[in-house]
Write a structure and sequence with these properties.
179 residues, alpha+beta, four-stranded mixed β-sheet, 21% helix, elongated, binds zinc ion
Length: 179
Amino acid sequence: MADTLVINADGQPVSLLPLSAVPWKEAILYMYHDKCDVLEWYDDWIVRSVSWETKVPAVIMLKQYLRRTGGVRFSKSNVYLRDQYKCLYCGTGVNNASATMDHVLPVSRGGKTNWTNIVTACSPCNTRKAHHSVMKPRYAPYKPGYYELVRKRKQLPFNIRHDSWAQWLGLDEEITASE
Ligand SMILES: [Zn+2]
């Protein structure tokens, strides 16, 4: 479980794709090694060992700036995000469990697994397309930019563990705490 949001030295989340949040034990290691400042604490969550006790940090800020690559990794979830969790054949909404990655040009005909040949598809369309290669996606797949994906990611709910996260993530007030 990601308990602690990690903010870069510039005040922005280290990453939104995926969200830079770490389990509390890892956050305490950052504290122990003096690699972060704690910005927010869980008020009533205290952890203890034999020799110490501490409140659990909800948000930490790295002391040293972690350089961003600015690139976008080709991954299932980033493909779904580019396509805004919609099947590119029929427009049906999908989620991580129901979505599939479909090769526009089938692998059997030399199709590659990359940004320009993979689209999000619901499984009925994926199956149907295997038999009818004439099916065309609603737009040609492309490599998205980092900020495009960040913008699309912000339209989806985050698993907000602590109220203060919404502010650090630059989200609007009404955020549902489910994922
Ligand atoms: Zn579909």
